[in-house]
Amino acid sequence: MGIGEVTALMRGGIFETLMLSAPLLLTALVVGLIVSIIQATTSIQEQTLTFVPKIFAILLVLALLGGWMFASLADYTVQLFNLIPDMAG
Fold first, then answer.
1. Lower Cβ count inside 10 Å, N or C end of the chain?
2. pTM confidence score
3. How confident is the model over 16-64, as pLDDT tens digits?
4. Where are the domains of the chain?
5. CA–CA distance from 16 to each of 26, 36, 44, 55, 69 (Å)?
6. Are 26 and 78 contacting, i.e. CB atoms less than 8 angstroms apart?
7. Which one, of 57, 62, 65, lies nearest residue 35 by Cα?
8. What is the signed CA dihedral for 72, 74, 79, 82, rounded to 10 degrees?
């Protein structure tokens, strides 16, 4: 197995990680921004107020996209297992 193939495997792993984590991170970012704007306009400066909406939003995204995330990760894992005989030979 050459350096190019190892690089392609690592690139694929990083890309898969980014694709699976992006919806959750973007959801947390948007909800945090909205809550921050609401806190700034109402002068409510409670630090724990941001956690509850973020948790609910992330759980909602997981419920909606969990099947796609699992299928994508399963496909990537199958691809990796299919490459094992090529790596050994």
1. C
2. 0.80
3. 999 999 999 999 999 999 998 998 898 887 878 888 999 999 999 999 9
4. 3-88
5. 16, 30, 39, 23, 10
6. no
7. 57
8. -170
